[in-house]
Design brief:
The protein has 359 residues and is of the alpha/beta class. 57% of the residues lie in helices and 17% in strands.
């Protein structure tokens, strides 16, 4: 028999002590780890809560008031663990009740070692896939919700700037034009000069607004120039030093890859300035064979990666989700290496596609 890649932990619920020990021996021989044996539903629930196994092998007929089907229903609802029924009962009414608990397998006694091995492997794999799908769905919902929130915040910010800054400039020009018609004693040249100053300020406001939305450097000069600009801007605002190294190529990357890299660097620098307490940041943009490698490294306080992943799944770490989503959309993979007190490294590895190849 082929042992599982990971040593999954399995709880055995069986009220016949000899049978339970025999099952535990078979489970161990298959490469799994038996974490305990329960003889009734109460013991099973208590061990599930204490040991947090990866799977529960459940006999339907148990001593006590609560049978294995009812216990399985509670385990699925409370702990979301896969349950495989291991029983001698094959009556239709029992099977119908068992279906309601959504079991991951149903093995009739007596069984062979191959039957047990196949059922356990398939149950664990199915549960792993379901968990990944569930987590991905939660992340997508959280990301979609956050995208809408950010979109509305950005629209509100643009509206406020247009109204408060550009709107005031245009209003001032309108007032001057009206005054030029009524005040015959005031030189038109003075009024026109004031209008020119106001228009120049309005143009600066429009350029600043457009740059904040998307820097023209990214479209006009490419990714390296845009990253150099954004790193200098972040360093000036946040106080840490930034070094930027990049490979000099003759061809530009495809627009979607350039945009993904730029936004990932933006988000990473924002996180560093808010949370990392870093003094030095290094950004590297390299080519390795047919891949572009983007690395953002800081010497800050770092963080607990497992806690971050839990927050990301719950939708509380949208910045990380956004970076991962951008990497996925360009066919790449984003990884994070960090630990408390050891700084952090964000890396994007994506296919190297040029602008010409994208046409």
């Amino acid at each position: 028999m082929t042992a599982p890649i990971k040593k999954a932990r399995i709880l055995i619920v069986e009220d016949e002590a000899i049978v339970a020990r025999d099952i535990a021996s078979q489970v161990q021989a298959l490469g799994y780890e038996p974490v305990g044996i329960a003889a009734n539903a109460d013991q099973a629930l208590r061990l599930v809560e204490q040991e947090r196994p990866n799977l529960v092998l459940m006999d339907i007929q148990l001593c006590g008031v609560v049978d294995g089907i009812a216990a399985a229903a509670t385990i699925r609802a409370k702990f979301n663990l896969p349950v495989v029924f291991l029983t001698a009962f094959a009556a239709d009414d029992i099977l119908e009740r068992a279906k309601l608990t959504e079991p991951f397998g149903y093995i009739l006694k007596p069984f062979t070692e191959r039957e047990l091995s196949t059922t356990l492997a398939m149950a664990l794999y199915k549960h792993e896939v379901e968990t990944r799908l569930h987590n991905t769905t939660r992340q997508l919902k959280a990301l979609s919700r956050r995208v809408l929130e950010v979109q509305e915040l950005e629209r509100r910010r643009v509206a406020v700037e247009l109204h408060d800054e550009l709107g005031q400039s245009l209003t001032a020009i309108k007032i001057n034009l009206q005054l030029s018609q009524r005040l015959k004693d005031k030189a038109l040249a003075d009024i026109n000069l004031e209008n020119i100053h106001i228009v120049e300020e309005a143009l600066r406001q429009v350029r600043r607004l457009a740059t904040n939305l998307r820097p023209s450097l990214l479209d006009d000069l490419g990714l390296a120039a845009a990253l150099q600009w954004v790193t200098e801007q972040s360093a000036n605002r946040s106080g840490f030093s930034v070094t930027f190294h990049h490979v000099r190529g003759q061809s530009r990357l495809a627009p979607d890859i350039e945009t993904a890299c730029f936004r990932i660097v933006q988000e990473a620098l924002t996180n560093i300035s808010r949370h990392a307490q870093a003094k030095r940041v290094e950004i590297r943009l390299d080519r390795q064979n047919d891949h572009v490698i983007l690395r953002i490294t800081d010497d800050g306080c770092g963080f607990n990666l497992d806690d971050m992943r839990i927050r990301a799944v719950a939708g509380d770490s949208i910045g990380v989700l956004g970076m991962q989503e951008r990497g996925t959309l360009v066919g790449g993979e984003l990884t994070i290496e960090t630990a408390p007190g050891q700084g952090s490294t964000v890396q994007l590895r994506a296919p190297w596609r040029t602008y010409e190849e994208n046409l």
